[in-house]
Amino acid sequence: MRNTLGGLRPWLHDRPLITDALLAVLLAAAAVPLARDAALFGGPAWPGGPGPAGVGLIVAGCLLTALRRHRPFLVLFLVTLAEVTLSALSMGGSPLWPATLVMVSTVAARRGLALSLCALAVSLTGRLASAAARGDLGDWTAQLLVAVLTVAFWLVGRSLRLRRAYLSELRERTERTARAREADTRAARAEERSRIARELHDVVAHHVSVMTVQAAAARRVLASNPDGAREALSAIEETGRTAMAEMRNIVGVLRTDPASPAERGPQPGVQEIPALVEQMCEAGLRTELRVERADGGAREAREAREAVTAGGPNPGGAFPPLPAGVDLAAYRLVQEALTNSMRHAGAGAHAWVTVRHGPGELTVHVEDDGQGPRAARAEAGRASGGRAAAERIGHGLVGIRERVALYGGVLRIGPRTGGGFEVRARFPIKD
């Protein structure tokens, strides 16, 4: 039984005309018998009952309520007119005022405040006109009762309209919130994809460049120095493993299967810069690392290769703790700058990396004394005979600008005084 009612309600809700027609039939079926005792409606009983004309007006007035959703004010006016006509012809009470109450409530629930007030005035005016036609206008008790009931039905209709408007506003607000949430989700996904793209570019560009240089060196000394070639191949293998491990950690965040969660390894930071400098030295780019603190004193100023191979103090120990985002951005900046120096500075170039932790800021400075990317771009363009090779240079520098701007830093990229190229960034550090 409950399932039947649960299925009937949506069916009737989608077909309001059927519900209104049933209401109109019930009103008509109740109005005709009650017309014999019209005193219930504020007037004397009809002697002998209503005639055929009276029954026709009663039935017509009640059946008009079937159209209450489409033309409520017009239906109210016609029902009120039928009630006044019955009172004027029969001089008895009219059983149509319950239908009038239904129409007053309908107009108040489905039309604006001004039209609903007009409907209330029409109903009260029609009731007074019917009482005047019957000659019982002086019965103020009955008139007051009808007026109170009419105002009560009007208030019920207004409450239904306000509730319907409130629920509609809640639905619209929920839809707007859902759309805003979807937009935020899309923006977050786009930002995450952009971050992953920057990370992948930095990892692939650096490690592939190092592996290319080491492979070229191994090829040149393969016949004359097999041990050196073997060391270069071992370095290529290690570099490839490192690159695969970093890419696995980065791309792992794209996995959506909860059964196989992504492996999240620690992100590199400034503590790994000495190892990065050592790797560049092994690849053939002479690189020096200098770490400075707020007191202005240089903690280390030697080639990273010498520091590690000789068992000297590790420059990485001089790095203070940094925010995770700034820590990663500084490492990627050094990585991209050294990769560009190795690719574009030319043979015999020398690079310097300076990391200074000052009061409230971190300064990272990478410079070389090579020919610079502009000369390398021109040379690459002449070698390839087209613009495509030249246009592919510099995407990493765009990523550096985005990283520095993300953390409110200041970046300078350009030629170095005295020749070469430099990348200098200053990151603000908050307590």
Automatic annotation (TrEMBL):
GO terms for molecular function: ATP binding; phosphorelay sensor kinase activity; protein dimerization activity. It comes from the Bacteria. Keywords: ATP-binding, Kinase, Membrane, Nucleotide-binding, Phosphoprotein, Transferase, Transmembrane, Transmembrane helix, Two-component regulatory system. CDD domains: HATPase_UhpB-NarQ-NarX-like. The chain crosses the membrane at residues 47-66, 73-93, 140-157. Residues 325-431 form the Histidine kinase/HSP90-like ATPase domain. SMART domains: HATPase_c. InterPro entries: DUF7134, HATPase_C_sf, HATPase_dom, Sensor_HK_TwoCompSys, Sig_transdc_His_kin_sub3_dim/P. One of its GO terms (cellular component) is membrane. The keyword Nucleotidyltransferase does not apply. This is histidine kinase.
